[in-house]
């Protein structure tokens, strides 16, 4: 349970991030801002010279202007942000960290500050358990459409409480709109921006936190988003997404209908635009990087900066390749393999003003909060995903012996909805209506009794269900259960063979279990999935909970395992169709003793970890030592190999109840 110190700190964090673009008004924070001076406290920083440098740059107007748009991909913006991050992250104690943040907040670009502050808070050990408000409530402009923001202002001016419905972009004449509910889902966007805060491409080894399997997570999290998007497309009678090609037009345009807080509109991309060179980057460069990456995959090694060969043909190869393709600070050779993925985001974001002639602001593809709104995001990541597939396809297939769990068999699997009227092996999805607090979208501070303005959005959701898995074991053992789902039929209505479907599998859950000798009935609730996180608490909810705890009306529990990165639980299942869409559900159980990383965490400890599937762990090692997507990550030339007692496939239908 939180003590008073924790509660007060948590409350001040929330107040610090309230109306991030306006100067602080909270008296306690204003007092810190006016009385604290980093220059008078240099001894409490790891690098006093860095503090002096940043203070000097701020005083001389050499940092990004408050009204400009912070872009992480911009090397100048990023270098400034990293300086601020390093000051905050390495500050000697919590007080120094927080007071420095308060001092910086009104003096630097708000989103640049927010990003540096958030990444520092997520990684400081003394900040474990603090909760950031949902990203869509801190910077609503990055998640909402212009129309909603305009109506919110109107409501504020006329002091009329209002719930403003937000529509997905586009019109019925644009078939991509059928799946806009996925790319424009605020929770998914929030997850994606948090993933890139937990695993920043600029993260340096000297920060002292080793990001276990960061490159592999880059592959797997985005791979799963693609598999999910394709399943949504099939649920809406659309063919799966095609990869981008530098030589061909970008078929789908995109009109974000959104505006930055400074009033600039996000650029619109018409259909069929071609890629163009940027002043500092050519399409030939991109093709060169891609070719060299393909060569590396085919040869089975990358050439590192010191000319040594780093082999890819083992289970860690995907991690090396992930770092190279992204590319992150961990890339073995940024000169040779370039920055294929990051540059592609920038090329797409600037494609409508490639010569910078019109001074357009950055496109949606240039921010992790907004990128997935654009259908081109999925096309780019399909291209990236295909590179990973080329690599995986070259690894030796698993044998029956690799997959075996002697003495353990899955006798039966079924899924059952928890509502009484549910049909066995039928899952139900629907669209819920959710309200987002818009207090931060309009200027003027949040006050008790202030007019309530909210946006309402429709979000994909599903009825809870449970898996009932009957396992026979001839001994006491520990197993790890892996559950995946994928559409059984392709867009042409043909059954997808195992060797193809494996690349479309959506991970639903992965959890260790204690097995006793004899029959075991494993009942697992969908809500316990280690892939997803529960609904985040809104700004007003968090404030109320802390106030109640400070007043002694309630208790506030600290969850030190809390992750902001995590796929929203609502989105666990693809939409399916109103008539019921057929999916295959794959369940395997393997030997946890064999699969876990030694010394690893215990079966019971793993249960505390959330969003393990897409977000790994913040520090330490991922307990499951198998490659992500195991055992379906490698080619399956002989499907007989999967005909093993510890694996079972059943057919389920997903029905969308609207
Ligand atoms: Cu997450 Cu491209 O890496 O958007």
UniProtKB/TrEMBL annotation:
<dbReference type="InterPro" id="IPR005203">
    <property type="entry name" value="Hemocyanin_C"/>
</dbReference>
<dbReference type="InterPro" id="IPR013788">
    <property type="entry name" value="Hemocyanin/hexamerin"/>
</dbReference>
<feature type="domain" description="Tyrosinase copper-binding">
    <location>
        <begin position="374"/>
        <end position="385"/>
    </location>
</feature>
<comment type="similarity">
    <text>Belongs to the tyrosinase family. Hemocyanin subfamily.</text>
</comment>
<dbReference type="Pfam" id="PF03723">
    <property type="entry name" value="Hemocyanin_C"/>
</dbReference>
<dbReference type="InterPro" id="IPR037020">
    <property type="entry name" value="Hemocyanin_C_sf"/>
</dbReference>
<keyword id="KW-0560">Oxidoreductase</keyword>
<dbReference type="Pfam" id="PF00372">
    <property type="entry name" value="Hemocyanin_M"/>
</dbReference>
<dbReference type="Pfam" id="PF03722">
    <property type="entry name" value="Hemocyanin_N"/>
</dbReference>
<dbReference type="InterPro" id="IPR014756">
    <property type="entry name" value="Ig_E-set"/>
</dbReference>
<keyword id="KW-0758">Storage protein</keyword>
<protein>
    <submittedName>
        <fullName>Hemocyanin 2</fullName>
    </submittedName>
</protein>
<dbReference type="InterPro" id="IPR005204">
    <property type="entry name" value="Hemocyanin_N"/>
</dbReference>
<dbReference type="GO" id="GO:0004497">
    <property type="term" value="F:monooxygenase activity"/>
</dbReference>
<dbReference type="InterPro" id="IPR002227">
    <property type="entry name" value="Tyrosinase_Cu-bd"/>
</dbReference>
<dbReference type="InterPro" id="IPR036697">
    <property type="entry name" value="Hemocyanin_N_sf"/>
</dbReference>
<dbReference type="InterPro" id="IPR000896">
    <property type="entry name" value="Hemocyanin/hexamerin_mid_dom"/>
</dbReference>
<keyword id="KW-0503">Monooxygenase</keyword>
<dbReference type="GO" id="GO:0005615">
    <property type="term" value="C:extracellular space"/>
</dbReference>
<dbReference type="InterPro" id="IPR008922">
    <property type="entry name" value="Di-copper_centre_dom_sf"/>
</dbReference>
<dbReference type="GO" id="GO:0045735">
    <property type="term" value="F:nutrient reservoir activity"/>
</dbReference>
């Amino acid at each position: 349970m939180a003590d008073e110190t924790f509660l007060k700190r948590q409350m001040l964090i929330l107040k610090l991030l309230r109306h991030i673009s306006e100067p602080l008004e909270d008296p306690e924070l204003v007092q810190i801002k006016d009385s604290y001076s980093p220059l008078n406290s240099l001894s409490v920083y790891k690098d006093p010279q860095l503090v002096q440098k940043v203070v000097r740059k701020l005083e001389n107007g050499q940092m990004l202007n408050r009204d400009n748009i912070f872009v992480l991909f911009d090397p100048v913006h990023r270098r400034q942000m990293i300086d601020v991050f390093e000051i905050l992250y390495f500050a000697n104690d919590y007080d120094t960290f927080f007071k420095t943040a308060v001092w910086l907040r009104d003096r630097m670009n708000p989103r640049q500050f927010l990003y540096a502050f958030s990444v520092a808070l997520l990684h400081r050990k003394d900040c474990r358990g603090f909760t950031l408000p949902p990203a869509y409530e801190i910077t609503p402009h990055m998640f909402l459409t212009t129309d909603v923001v305009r109506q919110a202002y109107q409501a504020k001016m006329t002091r009329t409480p209002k719930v403003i419905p937000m529509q997905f972009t586009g019109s019925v004449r644009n078939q991509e709109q059928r799946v806009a509910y996925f790319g424009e889902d605020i929770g998914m966007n929030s997850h994606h921006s948090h993933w890139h805060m937990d695993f920043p491409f600029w993260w340096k080894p000297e920060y002292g936190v080793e990001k276990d399997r960061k490159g592999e997570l880059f592959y797997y999290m985005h791979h799963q988003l693609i598999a999910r998007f394709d399943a949504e497309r099939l649920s809406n009678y659309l063919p799966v997404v095609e990869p981008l090609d530098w030589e061909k037009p970008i078929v789908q345009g995109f009109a974000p209908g959104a505006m930055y807080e400074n009033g600039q509109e996000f650029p619109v991309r018409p259909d069929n635009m071609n890629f163009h060179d940027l002043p500092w980057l050519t399409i030939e460069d991109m093709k060169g990087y891609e070719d060299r990456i393909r060569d590396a995959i085919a040869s089975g090694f990358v050439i590192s900066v010191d000319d040594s060969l780093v082999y890819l043909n083992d289970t860690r190869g995907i991690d090396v390749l992930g770092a190279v393709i992204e590319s992150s600070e961990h890339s073995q050779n940024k000169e040779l393999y370039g920055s294929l993925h990051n540059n592609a985001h920038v090329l797409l974001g600037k494609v409508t003003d490639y010569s910078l002639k019109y001074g357009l602001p950055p496109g949606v593809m240039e921010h992790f909060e907004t990128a997935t709104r654009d259908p081109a995001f999925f096309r780019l990541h399909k291209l990236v995903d295909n590179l990973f597939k080329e690599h995986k396809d070259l690894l030796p297939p698993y044998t029956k012996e690799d997959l075996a769990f002697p003495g353990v068999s899955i006798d039966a699997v079924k899924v059952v909805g928890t509502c009484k009227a549910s049909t066995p092996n039928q899952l139900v999805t629907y669209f819920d209506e959710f309200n987002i607090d818009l207090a931060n979208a309009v200027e003027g501070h949040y006050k008790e009794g202030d007019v309530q303005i909210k946006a309402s959005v429709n979000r994909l959701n599903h009825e809870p269900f449970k898996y009932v898995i009957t396992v026979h074991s001839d001994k006491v053992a520990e197993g790890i259960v892996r559950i995946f789902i994928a559409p059984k039929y392709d867009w042409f209505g043909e059954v997808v063979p195992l060797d193809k479907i494996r690349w479309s599998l959506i991970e639903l859950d992965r959890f260790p279990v204690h097995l006793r000798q004899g029959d075991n009935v494993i009942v697992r609730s969908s809500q316990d999935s280690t892939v997803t996180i529960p609904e985040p608490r809104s700004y007003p909810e968090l404030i109320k909970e802390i106030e109640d705890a400070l007043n002694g009306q309630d208790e506030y529990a600290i969850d030190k395992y809390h992750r902001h990165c995590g796929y929203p639980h609502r989105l666990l299942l693809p939409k399916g169709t109103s008539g019921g869409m057929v999916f295959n559900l794959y369940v395997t159980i393997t030997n946890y003793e064999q699969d876990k990383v030694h010394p690893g965490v215990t079966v019971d400890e793993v249960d505390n970890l959330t969003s393990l599937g897409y977000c790994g762990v913040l520090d330490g090692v991922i307990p499951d030592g198998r490659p992500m997507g195991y055992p379906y990550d490698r080619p399956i030339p002989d499907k007989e190999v999967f005909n093993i007692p510890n694996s079972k496939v059943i057919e389920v239908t997903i029905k969308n109840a609207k």
